[in-house]
Specification:
The chain has 314 residues and is mainly α. It is 56% helix and 4% strand. It has twelve helices and three strands; from the N terminus they run H-H-H-H-H-E-E-H-H-H-H-E-H-H-H. It has a three-stranded antiparallel sheet with strand order 2-1-3. Helix 6 packs antiparallel against helix 7, helix 9 packs across helix 10 and helix 10 packs across helix 11. It is globular and about 65 Å long.
């Protein structure tokens, strides 16, 4: 019997069950918790509620608030905060621009998941900082535009460093790995390249054996095709690099404002991020396909921005 991961409605019902014995504040939004816990199974959700309750008790609160639930989700997704980890000022400055680049590009592109939080507080074993995105709903497929946007968000950290410091650091290895894998999947798995609607992925399975044993990996394309695949992956990455550079350069005042705020407060939520960006580099227009969340953020953060000024920014 296959028991799949619960969808957003299922997560909401599971959370409701585990909240029965927990005293929660009126600000706790179960629908919001279900939306930001995509991929969580029942045990993960039970653990989230337990951790949130323990955090509230540790802080001397009588009710569990959304603050504790958000912290519980981050602990499950990324790890514990490591505030004792000491960083040099120059490294902290570079990290602030790195995470600011991720956040700014994620906010600027129309088909990305909402930015939930930006932080330069180390978490877990290796995360010096992070930009956390949370989908507004469960997603079962992605378009080419969405994949390209994900590549640009992944590249934005190191390109922000390059823009500000005219140099890059070693903290972008995971970002580059993720961007390259998305680009390679676009070419080899999804037929989203100039090589056509062909699947080039090699298979391990031996069609003549049914015992579960794997045959040696078969080569389904020539060396010339393999070279063309590499060239297509490089082309997708290079085009994404140019688009990302354009966004960062055109909205540099917002990039600097985000980094400055992160250096001061270390953490920023989605509302603060939208306000900073629209105050320092207003969105030039509402791109077709922009989500209602970004429309509301633009309207709320820059209600008095004249159309002529916004057009000039573009």
């Amino acid at each position: 019997v296959l028991v799949d991961r619960p969808d957003v409605a299922g997560r909401e019902e599971i959370i409701e069950v585990h909240l029965q014995n927990i005293k929660v504040d009126a600000d706790v939004d179960v629908k919001s918790l279900a939306a930001i816990t995509s991929g969580f199974v029942g045990a993960d959700l039970a653990n989230m509620v337990n951790v949130a309750a323990l955090l509230a008790a540790r802080n001397g609160k009588e009710l569990v608030t959304m603050e504790e639930f958000h912290e519980a989700v981050e602990r499950a997704s990324i790890g514990l905060e490591k505030k004792s980890r000491i960083m040099h000022d120059d490294e902290k400055l570079r990290l602030a621009y790195h995470e600011s680049g991720h956040a700014l590009v994620a906010y600027s592109l129309p088909n990305t998941d909402p930015v939930h939080k930006v932080s330069i507080i180390p978490r877990g074993l290796s995360a010096l900082g992070y930009m956390q995105q949370r989908p507004e709903h469960d997603r079962y497929m992605m378009t080419r535009g969405q994949l390209e946007s994900n590549i640009q968000v992944a590249l934005a950290g190191t390109l922000a460093e390059e823009l500000i410091f005219d140099d890059v650091g070693t903290g972008a290895s995971n970002d580059l790995e993720r961007a390259t894998e998305i680009a390679r999947s676009m070419v080899m798995d999804y037929g989203m390249s100039r090589l056509g609607r062909i699947n080039y992925r090699e298979s391990n399975r031996n069609p003549f054996l049914y015992s579960g044993m794997d045959a040696p990996r078969a080569q389904h394309h020539s060396e010339q095709t393999a070279r063309e695949i590499d060239q297509e992956v490089k082309r997708i990455i290079e085009e994404s690099v140019e688009r990302t550079r354009q966004i960062l350069a055109s909205r540099r005042p917002a990039l600097e404002a985000i980094a400055k705020t992160l250096l001061e407060y270390e953490v920023m939520d989605s509302t603060q991020l939208a306000k900073l960006i629209e105050e320092n580099s207003p969105s030039p227009m509402i791109v077709p396909g922009t989500t209602d969340r970004k429309r509301a953020a633009v309207a709320k953060a820059a209600p008095e921005a004249p159309e002529s000024e916004a057009a000039a920014e573009g």
